[in-house]
Known about the structure:
By secondary structure, the chain is mainly alpha-helical. The protein has two helices and no strands.
Amino acid sequence: MNELRISVHRMGFLTVPISRRHLNALVEAVQTLVNRMEASLHDKDDLDSVRKKAKQAEDAAKNVCETFQRRRDKLAGEIPKWKRAWGR
Length: 88
C-alpha cells in the first residue's frame, strides 16, 4: 500500500492532476478492502479457537454426565440393600 501511495504522490503536477485525485480515492478503496480481508482472517482464527474451546467444554460436560450416571447407577444398586437393612 505504501508503494502505491508513493507512486501516486510522485506523479508530477503537470501529469493529469485530475487523475491523481481519482487515484488517491482508488488507493483508499484498496486500503479499505485490504483491511476487510485482514479482519476476515482474524475472524476466522477467532472462530477456530472458539470451536476448539466449545469442543473442550462439550467433552468436559460429557465426562461429568458419564461420572454422574456411574454414581447414580452405583447408588441405585445400593438402595435395595439399605431398604433390606432398615426393614422397609
